[in-house]
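User: Some background: our group keeps a shared notebook of sequences we're curious about, and every so often someone picks one and asks for a predicted structure to add to the entry. Today it's my turn. The entry only has the sequence so far, pasted here. Could you supply the structure so I can complete it?
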Amino acid sequence: MRTLLITGPGGSGRTTVAAATALTAARDGVQTLVLSADRTDSLGAALGVPTGAEPVPVVPGLTAWRPDAATGFRTDLAAFQDRAGQVLDLLGATRLDPEEVTPLPGAEELALLRALRDAALSERFELLVVDLPPAPQALALLALPEELRRYLRRLLPPERQAARALRPVLGRLAGLPMPAEWLYETAARWDVELAAVAAVVADRGTRVRLVAEPGPAGADAVRGAALGLAVRGLAVECLVAGRVLPETAADSWLAGPVAQQRKTLDEWRETYAVHPAAHLGRDPRGLDDLAALAVPGVKPATAPVEWPVTDRLAEDGVLVWNIPLPGAIREELDLIRLGDELAVTAGPFRRVVPLPSALRRCTVDGAALRDGALRIRFAPDPALWPRER
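Assistant: Of course. Here's the predicted structure to add to the notebook entry:
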């Protein structure tokens, strides 16, 4: 299955483009599922078919699904209370009734991640179109599975679970309470679930479609979103320019906005495959309006984003790690070596990534930002690097 993630600045028409993309793909004969996490049914409004907790057919080959965050949140809370029952009883805590629970902020996004995992495991669909939240929230959401796994493994290392049988004895010897069995079981289950979501995000067939209205604000938003996606190693499949105005006479009051849009579109075309979606003079509603936008469906797979290591040992005595970071600013870059990991910060975006095996035996020798790529130089550590015979 291919996965197409759709995001952009708030109010740019992300949900409309997601619906139009899914409709085009379905009409091209691709079995497609479109997902949305909106609390309001903006996806259903665009498609002309109400969507909700259960997947609903829209047209042949197209299914829409808006997961119910409330139900999932109540189920998870009830399961947590059951597993932590002894601790809660010791604390004298009163358990919450599932019927009195309302979802906390962020529950919709978590429900979307779970649905993304479930849909990816399904063999029914060939294409998964995901209507993500606005770009800043979407970038944080896409980072969540990888970062949570790293936190869990640091706080509750899997290798320590081998000593489960010794935990009561160790607790008596140390005089300290030891983590309960349910805690490790919960952590292991979360790790499996998060790994499944992270695998979908990191899959070579996963692409991102950006949506923005051409203009100064849209250009700034695209620049920031592209940098955040690059930090996550995600490729931008294309850029859909929404609400593009028709060409008009020079003396029309629309001449100024049209010229501004044209300028932004020309700049975008230097970097992206741009697909203008015409301004219909109204909010698109229903299948006919979605078809009129002429948004492309699934595109042929392009080369995935790579972070290659270049061997320059013979010439310069270093290995160079090349990290594409389009739009990055030199003054906003930061690198920190954390053992066998590297913390990369580009503007407001940060990611901790494991070093390739060869680089773990090296020390950082410098870095430079050139042509939209961060090139980090690593010099072999004599104490760790194999000696030549």
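Suggested note for the entry: The chain is about 40% helix and 25% strand. The CA atoms of residues 48 and 286 lie 5 Å apart.
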